[in-house]
Amino acid sequence: MKIELNVNGKDYSIEIEEHLRLIDLLRDKLNLTGTKEGCGEGECGACTVIMDGRIVNSCLVMAFQAHKSKIITIEGVEDEDIKNAFIEEGAVQCGFCTPGMILAAKSLLDKNENPSEQDIREAISGNLCRCTGYNKIVSAIKKAAEIKRGGRNV
Amino acid sequence: MYRRIKKVLGGDILKKRGKGIGVTFYGTGYGNGFPDVSRAYARLLEDGKVEILVGATEVGQGAKTVMVQIASETLNIPIEDVILVNEDTSKAPDAGTAAASRQTYNSGNAVKIACENLKDNILQEAKKILNVNSKIGLVCEKGSVYVKTYPSKKVSFKEIANINNNLKGEGVFIAHTTQMDENGQGAPYWPYTFAACAVEVEVDTETGEVTILRAKLVLDVGKAVNPTLVEGQIDGGFAMGVGYALMEDVGLKDGKMLNSSFEKYIIPTSLDIPNIEKVLIEYPEDTAPYGAKGIGEPVLLPVAPAILNAIYDAIGVRFYEIPVTCEKILLQLNKG
């Protein structure tokens, strides 16, 4: 079957098999390998992408369900504030959860520029991380929010 | 040890609070007679930069950063002038595994020795170029060598490399590791890293759920080569300790794993971990590169004992088996 979708601002019209998952479409057909597959069963959040403004586990979405949708993957995140904050705060260790974490953070900050710590912890609670213990990720998202609100020069 | 029951919001007595500590010491490296050797090479490149070859694997803990920092410090050159080759086994010498909390101490020592040997060779060459009788009066700084009392008499690493393109240094570090006797007595490791953890928990006596309210972790690091990375290790180790103490169970039965997916093998999320007050104690270890001891595993070890002690303080039940899951707590509380 043929589907049409927009990924990171680019329109695609692709022939797919019905059993193909969104993550396979992204990684294997579009070569967007920044999206990671962790558990493959919707528990870990490593494969998080933004689909029509909502975060989804791309391992649990069938490719055909993405027909006519707008997808943002880590490659399409143009927000340098979040990425820089992650680097500055030391929020990346092995890096496997990082793409998903950044998309979860982006999804939060797109809706709420002044999140509380609890908001941040809830926003990334679907993304498992084995290395960082989350605290530096939480402070990175806090910092990104501050920068967005104009606190860069403070 | 004392027991206390605190009323929480709305006078709800079903939640009980307790405090606990855990204190540990842990040897750096393989220890107990298992051979523990790290090797590194340092080489002056044509452009005056320095290549460090060391088989220290980066798994997110920061080996790549720390090895570069140690080389930069030893040769007194900017970080940008250190070119690290660490995961190419056709080039980098064996530096053992990224395990046993050993890379900063063991491979860091090997990198430091390699850089000291390279520096010695660079100074030897500079001595000839600058026409002085000894290396003793030479200073190595920001990629140049100059005469301490006559700073304009100076030659850059690049110029030195153009005169001699074969300047190298090798570093081999053999750690202390001796086997204990049949009674478990002896001196298996050197050095030891000390850690202490304190937590306050709240136990919900209706559901058995344990919440970590506050945490503090104090770590004798020797020297924190990179404090941000050490803090990251503490955060990560603490979260692993929480999972270890309260959640994680592979559930081995007849040689099979019952909990082989994240649906059943539960690890902490961002909502299960509090902010941790971290204290780094810097008491440099003589045998370590700039005093830095291994900290990877030591950050995890005191966490589970601290949590189990806090649970005992809260509900008066002493657990001898981990993980202390909600079910186990309820079972004990309902024994009456």
Automatic annotation (TrEMBL), chain A:
<dbReference type="InterPro" id="IPR002888">
    <property type="entry name" value="2Fe-2S-bd"/>
</dbReference>
<dbReference type="GO" id="GO:0051537">
    <property type="term" value="F:2 iron, 2 sulfur cluster binding"/>
</dbReference>
<keyword id="KW-0479">Metal-binding</keyword>
<keyword id="KW-0001">2Fe-2S</keyword>
<comment type="pathway">
    <text>Alkaloid degradation; nicotine degradation.</text>
</comment>
<dbReference type="GO" id="GO:0016491">
    <property type="term" value="F:oxidoreductase activity"/>
</dbReference>
<protein>
    <submittedName>
        <fullName>Purine hydroxylase delta subunit apoprotein</fullName>
    </submittedName>
</protein>
<dbReference type="InterPro" id="IPR001041">
    <property type="entry name" value="2Fe-2S_ferredoxin-type"/>
</dbReference>
<feature type="domain" description="2Fe-2S ferredoxin-type">
    <location>
        <begin position="1"/>
        <end position="77"/>
    </location>
</feature>
<dbReference type="InterPro" id="IPR036010">
    <property type="entry name" value="2Fe-2S_ferredoxin-like_sf"/>
</dbReference>
<keyword id="KW-0560">Oxidoreductase</keyword>
<dbReference type="InterPro" id="IPR036884">
    <property type="entry name" value="2Fe-2S-bd_dom_sf"/>
</dbReference>
<dbReference type="InterPro" id="IPR051452">
    <property type="entry name" value="Diverse_Oxidoreductases"/>
</dbReference>
<dbReference type="GO" id="GO:0046872">
    <property type="term" value="F:metal ion binding"/>
</dbReference>
<keyword id="KW-0411">Iron-sulfur</keyword>
<dbReference type="InterPro" id="IPR006058">
    <property type="entry name" value="2Fe2S_fd_BS"/>
</dbReference>
<keyword id="KW-0408">Iron</keyword>
<dbReference type="InterPro" id="IPR012675">
    <property type="entry name" value="Beta-grasp_dom_sf"/>
</dbReference>
<dbReference type="Pfam" id="PF00111">
    <property type="entry name" value="Fer2"/>
</dbReference>
<dbReference type="Pfam" id="PF01799">
    <property type="entry name" value="Fer2_2"/>
</dbReference>
From TrEMBL, chain B:
<feature type="domain" description="Aldehyde oxidase/xanthine dehydrogenase second molybdopterin binding">
    <location>
        <begin position="15"/>
        <end position="274"/>
    </location>
</feature>
<dbReference type="GO" id="GO:0005506">
    <property type="term" value="F:iron ion binding"/>
</dbReference>
<dbReference type="InterPro" id="IPR046867">
    <property type="entry name" value="AldOxase/xan_DH_MoCoBD2"/>
</dbReference>
<dbReference type="GO" id="GO:0016491">
    <property type="term" value="F:oxidoreductase activity"/>
</dbReference>
<dbReference type="Pfam" id="PF20256">
    <property type="entry name" value="MoCoBD_2"/>
</dbReference>
<dbReference type="InterPro" id="IPR016208">
    <property type="entry name" value="Ald_Oxase/xanthine_DH-like"/>
</dbReference>
<protein>
    <submittedName>
        <fullName>Purine hydroxylase beta subunit apoprotein</fullName>
    </submittedName>
</protein>
<dbReference type="InterPro" id="IPR037165">
    <property type="entry name" value="AldOxase/xan_DH_Mopterin-bd_sf"/>
</dbReference>
